[in-house]
Amino acid sequence: MSDQIQFIVEKLNQEPFRKNYNLITFDSLESMQLLQLLSDVLGEIDPKHAVDIREELPEQTAKRMLSLLGILKYKPPGSISDLSAFRQGLVTGSKPVIHPVLHWLLQRTNELKKRAYLARFLVKLEVPAEFLRDDTVADINKQYEELMEAFKNLHKECEQLKTSGLSTAEIRRDISAMEEEKDQLVKRVERLKKRVETVQNHQRMLEIARQLRLEREREESLAQQKQEQKNQLFHAEQRLQRAQLQLKEMHHAVVDSKPESLMKKLEEEINFNSYLVTEKIPRELESKKNSTYFLQKVAAEPAMSQSDLSVLEMKINEINAQINQLTEKRMMKYEPIDSKFSMYRQQASIIARKKEAKAEELQAAKEEMSSAERQMLQKTSQAQELEGSEVLKGDEFKHYVNKLRSKNTFYKKKRLEIAEITAEYGILQRTEELLKQRHEAVQQQLQAIEDKKGISGYSYTQEELERVSAVKSEMDEMKGRTLDNMSEMVKKLNTMVAEKKASLAPVIKELRQLRQKCQELTQECDEKKIQYNSCAAGLESNRSALEQEVKGLLEECVQEESNYRYINCMKRNLEVQLQRAKEEMKAYVSPDPQERRKAVREQYTRMILEQENLGKKLREKQKVVRESHGPNMKQMKMWQDFEQLMACKRECFLKQQNQTAIGQVIQEGGKDRLVL
């Protein structure tokens, strides 16, 4: 209990309560203060309950708190199992009732806030059945239930978004990275603009490039539409193939069967489906409903510990044992061993179980067959997407195998040719290495000769000149080709621009009319906007003045309300004091001595007399103690000296005994030596 109170005090001293309690002050709170404290905690959980309990009746306070505790699924502890006793303790502000409630509320404040918030929207209003017969009320109730389900879904989505891990820091980093990329792209575009400005007719070239980009985007969109239409056509062909396959199967079934067999097959299917509809599915549905009901009941219960679960398991085992015993007794009582009905009933139960098992096997086989068909169609569609054609069957597959064999022989021939070419490549590579070595030797000899003749570097300079001339000729050819290509591209672009202009001429005419209309509408919009702004400014000024007036009135109302509460409290205190004075006067004037004794004046007079008598006795006792203090101290000193004297004598006696014992031992030792 002390740990519980300490936890409550710690929580109340923290935010948002900040009560500055200690164990003594909290334990000394009166019943009204405890109820107000409980109301404040409930008001923190649900703001509707932030109420001053002095302004409402005790029954209203208890009813309000009990309703909220019921919504929060609070259960009284084992010591307060009786609900009426708990309600009475809540009305009177009993500590054994209030302290556990505060401990339970402060332990799980955040969870209870969420539960109270959801209860505002999910606690269903019970409408009587006679009112639901009205169509309007029924429709409104249905809309109310639909809105409640929508709220549940939205709340779940909100919780999932909160726990999805998308933090604002990551989003800010992404935004900053995107802004950096945007700045880089802007700088790059500016550099490209500066580079293009030096080219002649760059505006025209940019316009042509823009039109080319638009046409390419349009081409991409058309290609995408074409691909989508191809996919739609492919899916339609798949559906057609499935329908044709089903039609073929139906034709085979009709050709290979007779009317009697078809009727028999239909009867079997009807019997099986009727068994599923009338027996199996209702039984499974009933079991599912029962399990759902029990699960909802378990979910509504508070969290259970392991000890509670073990107790429940023991109870379940005991109840099962009792059920088995009762079943055996019933069988022994109503079904004797020699009865033939028991055998028939056992056979009927066995047949029913076999029937259920076979029905489940048949259902599973049908589901497996349908899944296999779906997988076959899926694999067929995947093969068609990969290969671009249908799956081969029969003669087509044999033809495909022969084609693969011919390709395999062709592949083997080409692989032999590749091996020969690889061997020849190795020989040529070795020849190239030998020629390079010879070339290096000749270059060294040529360099030595040039050094002797005094013209070193002549061969290198000549090679460089030849290489530069070759590069120059290649560049000239490339420039000529580039100019030709550019002229052809300009011609093509000019023709494309002319075609686009011709195609865009009617659109431009419509655009001019629309621009003129847009200008008129823009002018009208500006005029309306000016009128709106002037009207909004006037309304805003009126609104601000009204807000100031309302604010002043609210402050005045709050001040008056606080004054009213203060005066009301003072009035109650004065009434209590007046009542006490009346009772005191009535008791003091009463001729009955018993009533007069109950008066406060008589009580205080009696207490004063008792205290005066007690003071006299204590003073007399003090006088006696003072008079006997000197002789008593002297006598105590004499007893202490006597005690020291007796202790000294005891020590001397013990020493003397020890010396006599040592002397006897020495004498006995001397006698023994003389005997020897």
UniProtKB/TrEMBL annotation:
It is found in: Cytoplasm, Cytoskeleton, Cilium basal body. Keywords: Acetylation, Cell projection, Cilium, Cilium biogenesis/degradation, Coiled coil, Cytoplasm, Cytoskeleton, Differentiation, Phosphoprotein, Spermatogenesis. GO terms for cellular component: ciliary basal body; intraciliary transport particle B. Residues 3-126 form the IFT81 calponin homology domain. PANTHER family: INTRAFLAGELLAR TRANSPORT PROTEIN 81 HOMOLOG. The lineage of its organism: Eukaryota, Metazoa, Chordata, Craniata, Vertebrata. Residues 137-246, 309-389, 504-563 form a coiled coil. Component of the intraflagellar transport (IFT) complex B: together with IFT74, forms a tubulin-binding module that specifically mediates transport of tubulin within the cilium. Binds tubulin via its CH (calponin-homology)-like region. Required for ciliogenesis. Required for proper regulation of SHH signaling. Plays an important role during spermatogenesis by modulating the assembly and elongation of the sperm flagella. The gene is Ift81. Belongs to the IFT81 family. One of its GO terms (biological process) is cell differentiation. This is Intraflagellar transport protein 81 homolog. Its main location: cytoplasm. InterPro entries: IFT81, IFT81_CH, IFT81_N_sf. GO terms for molecular function: tubulin binding.
